[in-house]
Amino acid sequence: MSDTEFRHGKKRFYDNTKFPRGFAKSGDFTLAEEEILTLYGDTMLGLESGDLQPENSEEKHFVKVLVNPGKAKSKLERVWLKYVQLARGRKRFHTLNGRTKPDASSVDEYSDDVSLVEED
């Protein structure tokens, strides 16, 4: 990733609370995305929290993307937004049963059949 002006973090970035086995082993990130997060994540976190000030145009654009995620254009910005959504967003939960109740018309069809049965 030498084609970027973005600063490397002072230390490697890990999130042991949400991704204790690592970013790539979580199944949510590719190996390339994991490398971006570990190399640049410390700087991106500092820019997001305000601890660091942007030093170049790429970092200034990153700060703007934090306010307006639709403007993300670089891989670093998209990976950070993905990380924020997965780490801080709501976890999706899929069940096998639905929430909807059967509509009344399908229930009425069966109740009509029961009325046709003669009692002895």
TrEMBL record:
Acidic residues: compositionally biased ranges: 109-120
Superkingdom of this protein's organism: Bacteria
InterPro entries linked to this entry: DUF413
A Pfam family the protein falls into: DUF413
Region (Disordered): 97-120
Family assignment from sequence similarity: Belongs to the MaoP family.
Name assigned to this protein: Macrodomain Ori protein
Record organism: Vibrio brasiliensis LMG 20546
